[in-house]
Amino acid sequence: MARNDRGDRPMSWPARMLQEHARVFFFSLGKLWVNPFGSLLTAVVIGITLSLPAGLHVMLGNLGGLSSSWEGAMQVSLFLKDSVSEERGQALAREIKLRPGVSQAAYISKDDALSEFRKLSGFGEALDTLDSNPLPAVITVTPSATQTEKQVDGLYDALSKLPEVDLAKVDQKWLERLYAIIQIVQRGVMVVASLLGLAVIVTVGNIVRLDIQGRHEEIEVMKLIGAPNSFIRRPFLYTGFWYGLSGGIVAILFVWIGILALEAPVTHLAGLYQSKYGLAGPGFLSCMEILGCGILLGWLGAFWTVARHIHAIEPR
Amino acid sequence: MSNIIEFQRVSHRYAGGQDVLSDIEFSLAQGEMAFLTGASGAGKSTILRLVARLARATRGLVMVDGQNLATLKPRQVPAFRQRLGLIFQNVNLLNDRTVFDNVALPLVIRGFAHRDLGRQVRAALDQVGLLNKERLYPLFLSGGEQQRVGIARAVVTKPDLLLADEPTGNLDPELAQDVMKIFERFNGVGVSVLVATHAIDLINKLPHRVVHLENGRISDHAPTAASTLGGFAHGA
């Protein structure tokens, strides 16, 4: 039946898919290139939509960095009984340091505590009027960074029960509150991000719908000459891919601009707290995440639209 | 030799309820060339549309190339259509692509290697005498040239069956004759050809079977040539 006398045959499936995807990859890019201004506008619209959740995401990352840079505050202070000798105190500090989950344990003798207090508080003269040193010896224990809140609580319980310890204190309530607030904000960002992600899907879907309407005749011709739906669908899906990718690039650009705009006042504020804290822009991973989300959303928008509309077009 | 097209008691009815074809018994043998004639609305186009599975028979059996079209699932339709070469009066070229890209499209759909396209496309363009126009866009071509590009696109995949619906409708008699000669050349190398036309003057000179339709039925009457009606010359 086949009169393929010259041995012309379609290629094997993988080779054919590779060629086809490469062709459509550039073909769809070329289609966008034909109308650069319109394509750019679309990319900007998608970019603005993406930049809000992306920016919030980067900001949260910065807050996380802020709290971890204050991780030192997660210290347990063990106030030792007066009866504990200096040698015993130093030995105890060494023992505590060997416990699992402890990264640092430093012994501060009564005298050291006094001189430190004298230096920092400015009450030196008042102290001189006292007969004896009222300050207890202290061991400051720093849990290792990998410890969870619960584990730190457990450590605190164990240390406070040591016979040498008069009083144990861990001042982390404010940190817990900060974490709680960050968690609420994170949820909020997720809600906003989902809504705006939906907006990207709808935006791309609408553009692709107009594109399909504009190429109604072309799709009819394709069906007439035997193009399967997957073949007709592919350029539109790649269009969604390009819109998502370009929107992601625009979003990263916007986030950087936002960071640059905020950097000076934030550094100033941090300076007022004697901190060298500065804003960090989106790192490589965050950028990849933003681009990936953009591509996925663009593709979804195109897929959703094409799936609904392409079946409706039949050659008359 | 078996039939490439087989219609058994085929009827087709529009959604509105009017019969366009009734009780059609018709076949085209493998390698045969035949013409479908009849007045506008007699059902010529409908027969071609049934063969290409652009419409479905309301009753009766349509077999094409051994395939019963009633049992063809929608997702199998593209693969089935790839076995045909379709040519239409309104040529349906894609105006934003060159002649070359238009003719290459069926090959691209079938997944031919990029490096093989050039040779096959040029062979097809050579057969319709448009080898030097491959870089032009369809809108820069005359009506006759566009029609020939449409033919090149239909034959580039070397189908076994060519269907043409009024392929000469927009052409002056001389160009129309050229197009018919092209079809005869393909038929000469074994392609089955079915042409719906009302260019009676033209086909009367050709040695092929003529199937005449009247009001949706196959008629025994010979078609009336426009030239015998007096005063009217054939044309669009």
Distance between the termini of chain B: 37 Å
Give the total of beta strands of chain B: 10
Largest interface: A-B, 29 and 34 residues
Radius of gyration of chain B: 18 Å
Describe the largest sheet of chain B. 6 strands, mixed
How is the biggest beta sheet of chain A arranged? Answer: 4 strands, antiparallel
The first-to-last residue Cα distance of chain A is 29 Å
Features:
A: 316 residues; alpha+beta; disordered N terminus; B: 236 residues; six-stranded mixed β-sheet; four-stranded antiparallel β-sheet; 10 strands; disordered C terminus
Describe this structure in words.
The complex is a heterodimer of chains A (316) and B (236). Chain A is an alpha+beta fold. Chain A is 69% helix and 8% strand. Chain A has helices spanning 13-34, 36-69, 86-98, 110-121, 124-128, 149-160, 173-214, 216-224, 229-272, 284-309; strands spanning 76-80, 102-108, 138-143, 165-170. Chain A has a four-stranded antiparallel sheet with strand order 2-3-1-4. The two termini of chain A are 29 Å apart. Residues 1-7 of chain A have low confidence and may be disordered. Chain B has 236 residues and is an alpha/beta fold. Helix content of chain B is 31%, strand content 25%. In chain B, β7, α6 (173-188) and β8 form a beta-alpha-beta unit.
Summarize the entry for a quick read.
Chain A is of the alpha+beta class. Chain A is 69% helix and 8% strand. In chain A, strands 2-3-1-4 form a four-stranded antiparallel β-sheet.
